[in-house]
Amino acid sequence: MGKYKIAFFDVDGTLATNTGADELSILERVPESTKFAIDQLKSSGIRPVIATGRNHGMIKDLIDALGIDNVVANNGRFVLYNGKVIAHEYFSDQQVNDIVDYLLTNNIEFCYETANVLYKNDSSRFHSDSSMEIRNIPDGEIPQQVIQMIFRADDSDTEIDLNVPGIKAVKVGPTVYDVTADKSNKAVGIEKYLNIANVESSQVIAFGDEENDIEMFEKVGYSVAMGNANPKVKQVADFVTTNVDNNGILNAIQKLELVSE
To answer: What radius of gyration, in Å, describes the C-alpha atoms of the chain?
Structure first.
């Protein structure tokens, strides 16, 4: 499989195991075999790019440690090409107000997501994991340039209809949802990235595990689902590797002959 120039990687459940998310940072949850695999891809001339629902601030330590400066964040709404911002989209004031009204009316705890910072109001009981450093702001205050919002559901089968025009809730973890624009997804951000990079979709491979990776899989030339992936993701993937904490990334790149063993 020597035709691939770029490999897009989801973070949670793909590069990093979800085990220990409440106690460990994202970087601490990345297996050593995954770090080795990233280095191997670079040595083979394949550029690793992060494609995540998280914001840039939450993954800063990860990308610094892995030596990656190309990122599709916030489900495609914030994009870095060689460290330079090439896309930065955010909600209108009316959209944020409508989303907040819906979430408060339905007693759903949430936080606001900007390019580099997460915020929650003082009285919010939103439960964050260890990778989410959240700043408190007074009740009623809304940050500027909100890209997305995050909330947690009671269980993994919860169906969410925000009933806000132009807005959707997308499942990014077992009980975690991102609130984003209807037309936003990782594939949209990837297309912006590839246009700048002058690379065809057929020359791209992607790795993921959750529902917000499906559009990304449909966009690229070849897709790899983790062994721990959502069944919906496995159904559309070209290949299913082992679990992230069972050397899933390394096993995939070796099995697919992206690098030499």
So the answer is: 18
Of the candidates 158, 164, 193, the one whose C-alpha atom is nearest the C-alpha of residue 179 is: 164
d(CA 39, CA 53) in angstroms, rounded, equals: 23
To the nearest 10°, the Cα dihedral for 245, 223, 12, 102? -150
**H-type alpha helices, 91-185:** 93-105
Which domains, and CATH codes, for the chain? 6-88+184-255 (3.40.50.1000), 93-181 (3.30.1240.10)
Taking only the tens place, the pLDDT of each residue in 149-196 is 999 877 656 567 788 899 999 888 778 899 999 999 999 999 999 999
Residue in 45, 75, 51, 78 with CA at minimum distance from that of residue 63: 51
Q: Which residues are within 8 A (CB) of 196 and not within 5 positions of it... i.e. 6 or more apart? A: 81, 86
Cβ–Cβ contacts within 10 Å for residue 247, how many? 18
Q: Are 82 and 69 a contacting pair, CB within 8 Å?
A: yes
* Gap between the Cα atoms of 81 and 174, Å rounded: 30
The strand pairing partners of 119, in sequence order, are: 112, 135
Strands of 239-240's sheet in order across: 84-88, 78-81, 71-73, 47-51, 6-9, 204-208, 222-225, 239-240
The tens digit of pLDDT for each residue in 238-247 reads 999 999 999 9
Tokens read off for 245: 């904490």
Q: Which residues pair with 131 in a beta bridge?
A: none
Q: Which is nearest to 131 in space by CA: 51, 47, 18?
A: 18
Q: Strand pairing partners for 120?
A: 136
SS3 content of the chain, % helix, strand, coil (to 5): 30, 25, 45
Which tokens go with 45?
């001339």
